């Protein structure tokens, strides 16, 4: 018997066609990229974003708060840009701001902004280290 909780893969498998992410208008449609090229673009952005975020996180613990904010913030944004290769930016925004996801989206975007606020506006140093960690943990 299938579970009726929020993690029900059997029920979700029939609701989204597998080709939905590749057959729609991509943000990079004007480039004429093939499906494989779009997957490479997505994978590349995801890898670069992940590497920047990891490097930024390492610099956070070394006390480089400004560099952390730049690397971690840009890493997150580059990872989000990668989805443009698959479904397009406008479609992604439309899905992100669906009523069921709006709170999570707002918290996610606010977390990115607060990382920059903590590092640049508050000039977060050792005394505000917990503040920066808190914003990062919400990501």
Describe the structure.
This protein is mainly alpha-helical and 139 residues long. The chain has one domain (23-137). It is built from 7 helices and no strands. The model is unreliable at 13-19 (pLDDT under 50). It comes from Cerrena zonata. Its main location: Golgi. Belongs to the SFT2 family. Nonessential protein required for the fusion of transport vesicles derived from the endocytic pathway with the Golgi complex. Keywords: Golgi apparatus, Membrane, Protein transport, Transmembrane, Transmembrane helix, Transport.
SSE layout:
Blueprint: H1 9-13, H2 20-23, H3 35-61, H4 65-82, H5 89-96, H6 102-121, H7 129-137
Helix pairs in contact: 3-4, 4-6, 6-7
Quickly list its features.
single chain, 139 residues, mainly alpha, flat
Rg, nearest Å = 18 Å
**Overall pLDDT confidence:** 76
Tally the beta strands: 0
Sequence stretches where pLDDT stays below 50 over 5 or more residues: 13-19
Shape: flat
**Distance from first to last alpha carbon:** 35 Å
Which structural class do you get from the secondary structure elements? mainly alpha
Short description:
Nonessential protein required for the fusion of transport vesicles derived from the endocytic pathway with the Golgi complex. The protein has 139 residues and is mainly α.
């Amino acid at each position: 018997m299938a579970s009726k909780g929020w993690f029900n893969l059997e029920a979700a498998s029939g609701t989204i066609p597998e080709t939905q992410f590749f057959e729609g208008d991509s943000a990079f449609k004007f480039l004429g990229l093939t499906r494989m090229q779009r997957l490479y673009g997505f994978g590349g952005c995801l890898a670069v974003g992940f590497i920047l975020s990891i490097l930024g996180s390492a610099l956070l613990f070394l006390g480089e708060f400004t560099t952390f904010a730049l690397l971690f913030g840009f890493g997150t944004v580059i990872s989000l840009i990668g989805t443009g290769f698959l479904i397009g930016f406008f479609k992604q925004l439309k899905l992100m701001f669906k009523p069921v996801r709006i709170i999570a989206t707002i918290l996610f975007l606010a977390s990115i902004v607060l990382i920059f606020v903590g590092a640049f506006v508050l000039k977060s140093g050792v005394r505000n280290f917990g503040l920066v960690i808190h914003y990062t943990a919400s990501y």
